[in-house]
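R.M. (postdoc): so does anyone remember the format we settled on? I'll just put the structure tokens first.
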């Protein structure tokens, strides 16, 4: 009995150790994860999802999340191709498509992607004009996505979307753009006014042509004018007189007087 009591603690310790080793051999990986296995330092490959076993002590597993990661790119200050200083921030969406490369080829794939996104953003800003950045933002986004995706492909990363969020301009540039916009609005207003006057003049010319071709039209216009004057009830009424009446009156005044015999 004394011998059993002396070896019992050792047996318990061995059983606990075996239980710990057995539990470390059981691995569970979620649907959105993969387990990259290393055996004595050598890559064995990725496993999962589900339940599987590894060899304790000899094997080591690193979990990799395959879900899309949102990466905020902090504001970067750069000088555009037309020498305008801007501050631009962006957001990128990426995911791991090759867990083995994401662990073996780079120490920290998330930080590496974050760093390459910042440098790529500054590079693209330096190659673009301010107008391209403000107007053709979709093209800038596509260019950024292509550059970052190609740079991170050896790491097993797929960059799906890159979006420029905010573009900050210097105050002097904001005021200059406001003045330019105001001048553009005034220009459009003057063009519209000039087009309206041109249309009115064209209509008057067309009306004059019609009246010249149809003599009765001037008489109708004369009667219409009298009707409008009567409706207005003005204290002073001006009667327009046809030019034929005036011409006849002038001819009568200019007729030479005939001397009467005494």
């Amino acid at each position: 009995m004394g011998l059993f009591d002396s070896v019992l603690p050792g047996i318990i310790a061995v059983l606990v150790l075996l239980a710990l080793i057995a539990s470390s051999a059981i691995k569970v990986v979620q649907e959105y994860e993969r387990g990259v296995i290393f055996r004595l330092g050598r890559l064995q490959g990725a496993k999962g999802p589900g339940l599987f076993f590894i060899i304790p002590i000899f094997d080591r597993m690193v979990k990799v999340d395959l879900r899309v990661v949102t990466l905020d790119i902090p504001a970067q200050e750069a000088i555009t191709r037309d020498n305008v200083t801007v501050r631009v921030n962006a957001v990128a969406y990426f995911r791991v498509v090759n867990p083995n490369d994401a662990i073996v080829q780079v120490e920290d794939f998330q930080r590496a992607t974050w760093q390459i996104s910042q440098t790529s953003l500054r590079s693209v800003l330096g190659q673009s004009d301010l107008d391209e950045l403000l107007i053709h933002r979709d093209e800038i986004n596509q260019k950024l996505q292509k550059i970052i995706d190609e740079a991170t492909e050896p790491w097993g990363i797929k960059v799906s979307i890159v979006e420029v969020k905010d573009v900050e301009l210097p105050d002097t540039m904001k005021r200059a753009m406001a003045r330019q916009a105001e001048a553009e609005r005034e220009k459009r207003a003057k063009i519209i006014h000039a087009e309206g006057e041109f249309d009115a003049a064209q209509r008057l010319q067309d009306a004059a042509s019609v009246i010249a071709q149809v003599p009765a039209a001037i008489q109708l216009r004369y009667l219409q004018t009298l009707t409008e004057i009567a409706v207005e009830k003005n204290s002073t009424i001006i009667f327009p007189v046809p030019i034929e009446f005036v011409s006849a009156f002038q001819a009568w005044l200019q007729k030479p007087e005939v001397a009467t015999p005494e």
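R.M.: ...and that's the designed sequence above, right after the tokens. Also worth knowing: Residues 216-254 form one domain. Residues 171-213 form the longest helix (43 residues).
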